[in-house]
Design a protein that fits this description.
6-stranded antiparallel beta sheet; 17 strands; elongated
């Protein structure tokens, strides 16, 4: 009995001795669980606050009626080592950028906070033609020395296809000279005519295999600042890898290149059809004059005799340029019409545009005086599609006698 009692006493004492250890373990376990829960809640709060800083503050975003309200549907614009300088809506292409990339005339009232930065909307007029922003198109004659003529952020167009006057447009991301040759990195709309076309980055080791002639599109510095090269590259890089449905009139390589430079979605690729019609109609008659293509407003001067595509039934409309508005991309012209006789009009400069080259012509000031006089007084002879049309009128004003061809 004593043994059993001793055994019982030992068992009880052992059990009692273990109780503090068990209670300590429970307290330690509770502390660990509480610490884990605290850390998790703290991490969740920090993560929520961080994403609030990174995401757009939609309460202050008017967004011009666009229904896009998801941050993943925005393209981030980055420069340098992943420095955020702006964002763009994938749906409507509206842009918000840092103030340093914003010209005063384009600053809108809408602001938003993205990635902890206050961005301002680019309020560029949607009806403004990028052609009015072009200063000139410079032909690069020496394709063996592209590094002397091209820089990162340049917009180039080059003849790539067999049909004449059809060009491919691209943004230059990098130009470097290696082993005596220039290596050019382009970001452009590659492919076409199907849903598989993509915005791609391509390294070209010999542009001579791609292009017969290259033009660099220079823009007006009062509308496109030198610092905007970073914004141009940021726009282009933000699109890399995206698949787009190619459309010759609404979505093509020129739309993309113009957007990267100006923020406007514009293309004159439709001018290929107009150029084709102009060429065919020119072949119908043997002409006694020469004409040259004009790519930008900088190629025109008051007093010039030009030819522009109006409609399919009137593909070669001759007119006299009286003034040029570089800011709006408009030109004032005087021409002879069937309906109203001599009229003065303000029209948007579009391509194709041809400037007539003549051996004998009046001084530009005299041409302007003669055009304004015809506008005031009209013409004695009525319009006739064969014997006295817009072509005869333009030659009569510019050189004193009309063309002997219809």
């Amino acid at each position: 009995m004593s043994i059993s009692a001793a055994s019982a006493g030992l068992s009880v004492s052992t059990a009692l001795a273990g109780l503090p250890v068990l209670e300590g373990f429970e307290r330690w376990k509770s502390f660990v669980v509480l610490a884990i829960v605290t850390l998790f809640v703290g991490w969740a709060i920090v993560r929520y606050c961080w994403h609030r800083l990174r995401n757009v503050n939609w309460e202050t975003l008017g967004h011009a009626g666009c229904t896009n309200d998801r941050m993943e549907q925005f393209r981030p614009y980055t420069a340098g080592r992943h420095r955020l300088i702006g964002i763009s809506c994938r749906s409507c292409r509206m842009e918000w950028v840092l103030p340093e990339f914003l010209l005063p005339q384009y600053e809108g009232e809408e602001e938003l906070v993205a990635h902890g930065l206050k961005l301002h909307v680019i309020n560029r007029p949607r009806n403004q033609s990028p052609l009015s922003m072009l200063l000139r198109e410079v032909e690069i004659e020496n394709l063996m020395d592209l590094s002397s003529h091209l820089r990162a952020g340049d917009h180039i167009r080059y003849r790539m296809y067999v049909p004449r006057d059809l060009y491919h447009h691209a943004i230059v991301e990098d130009v470097r000279r290696m082993d005596g040759s220039d290596i050019v990195t382009l970001i452009h709309w590659q492919g076409g005519w199907n849903s598989g076309s993509r915005i791609e980055r391509n390294i070209i080791y010999d542009m001579r295999q791609r292009a017969g002639v290259i033009y660099r599109c220079d823009y007006r510095e009062d509308l496109i600042r030198e610092d905007d090269r970073n914004l141009t590259l940021a726009r282009a890089r933000a699109w890399v890898g995206e698949s787009q449905w190619y459309n010759s009139t609404q979505n093509n390589c020129e739309h993309f290149a113009f957007f990267c430079k100006t923020g406007l979605w514009h293309s004159d690729q439709g001018e290929f059809g107009a150029n084709l019609i102009l060429g065919l109609t020119r072949l119908i008659y043997v002409s006694e004059y020469q004409d040259t293509a004009v790519g930008t407003l900088a190629g025109l001067s008051p007093g010039d005799h030009i030819i522009m595509f109006m409609t399919i039934v009137h593909p070669r409309c001759h007119m006299i340029v009286t003034s040029i508005n570089h800011a709006s991309g408009m030109i004032d012209v005087v021409r002879f019409t069937h309906e109203e006789g001599v009229v003065g009009e303000s029209i948007t400069f579009t391509r194709p545009c041809k400037r007539v080259i003549q051996q004998e012509t009046y001084d530009p000031q005299v041409v302007l005086e003669r055009a304004n006089a015809a506008l005031r007084n009209g013409m004695d002879q009525p319009y006739n599609i064969i014997t006295f049309n817009c072509k005869h009128f333009a030659f009569l004003i510019s050189r004193g006698y009309r063309s002997w061809r219809p």
